[in-house]
Amino acid sequence: MIDQNNSNVTQLNNVEALQEILLNSRIEKPLKDIAEKIINNKRLSQEEGILLFEKGELGYLGALSNYVATNLHNNKVYFNRNFHIEPTNVCIFTCNFCSYSRQYKHKDEGWELSIEQMLDIVKKYDGQAVTEVHIVGGVHPKMNLEFFCELIEKIKAHRPDLHIKGFTAVELDYMFRKANLTIEEGLQKMKNSGLQSLPGGGAEIFDTEIRNIICADKVDAKGWLQIHETAHKLNMPTNATMLYGHTENYAHRIDHMNRLRELQDKTNGFNCFIPLKFRNQNNDMSYIKEVSVIEDLKVYAISRLFMDNFKNIKAYWPMLGRQTAQLTLAFGVNDLDGTIDDTTKIYSMAGSEEQIPSMSTEDLCNLIENSGKIPVERDTIYNEIKIYSSKN
Ligand code: V47
Ligand code: SF4
Questions:
Q1: Which atom of ligand 2 is nearest to 138's Cα?
Q2: CB within 8 A of 316, min separation 6: which ones?
Q3: Domain limits of the chain?
Q4: What does residue 314 show for φ and ψ, rounded to 5 degrees?
Q5: Is 53 in the pocket of ligand 2 (CB under 6 A)?
Q6: CB 275 near ligand 1, within 6 Å
Q7: Which of 90, 293, 327, 385 has the largest CB neighbor count within 10 A?
Q8: pLDDT grade, residue 2 (50/70/90)?
Q9: Topology of 76-387 in CATH?
């Protein structure tokens, strides 16, 4: 049971914090105007989004974003029970921020899993209450559409109840072009095999100049957005990410969020928005310093305020580290992704604090409860499975 009284008290405190902002003589008028808009449920313009990055202090952003998140989710924070399969880290693309991939010409240094090996990973979770498998990896020229359709079919045959979320727009764009299929034909074929939703990777920053610096050779913004729009048309929900803290400026971040907000207005097919912090170890952008935790919190809070048609803002704890992830819960975040074991390597290879990213359900619930929120297990499409509370 949710402690309704406790939730009401929290929201009253949030309202008081907002009233303080409106009365505080130190806060400039344009920021007060933004606060008024948030209270009145009005959409922020791109200029206002940029102003929040330039002038919004942490206390101000925290009060506003927590107010919005509490209104939407009644103090609940979601997680799911999932595991990852990373079929290969061999990749034909050359994203400069990537610590994980090995180029095809050095494929001996990477890994390539067979269908049987991937099914063995699925079987490891037999009898466990996981609800989702997240499949994502490099773009290997020999792992084609047929290969992945066979994989999905076999996973579904073994475990029909497991939701299959898989393949970034980057992987799909390559597979469909190679198979000479349109996006719709390719996605329909995968859907028929059992694919149910798409993760949000590959979006990075949509701006062409920045994309040319960090990931020049993979699918562009238009292609990424087209694949997600088509998935939504086929009733496959998807996620959206933004890689921040490298060469982009505030206007690039807001432009990125705005393009996603526009597509969401059209389709309402996105489940959540996931800002991903650039980690700088072992990649060709290691010369760039990582942004501070303060900047992380600002990004999450401003995402919550700007992305008014996204119900969920997710902090991916294996990349942020669990302490920063916990802090984001006071800055608009209402989802911490899942209980993941060491099958995900993208972030440990890029320098995350989480070298073996594994958290039990109990660990995750404690982390959420210790931040004053209510842990709720969800499925991939945010149906509630169980509300956890030590007060029950
Ligand atoms: O697109 C790669 C990012 C993404 C680095 O949809 C890096 O539920 C930081 O999208 N520093 C792939 N980030 C992972 C992804 C994802 C993760 C968790 C949940 C979901 C979801 C999606 O990882 C890539 C890229 O943006 N990435 N290297 C790095 N050095
Ligand atoms: Fe390949 Fe993805 Fe790494 Fe880019 S981020 S090099 S597409 S694995």
A1: 8
A2: 274, 276, 325, 337
A3: 4-73, 76-387
A4: -110, 135
A5: no
A6: no
A7: 90
A8: very low
A9: TIM Barrel (3.20.20)
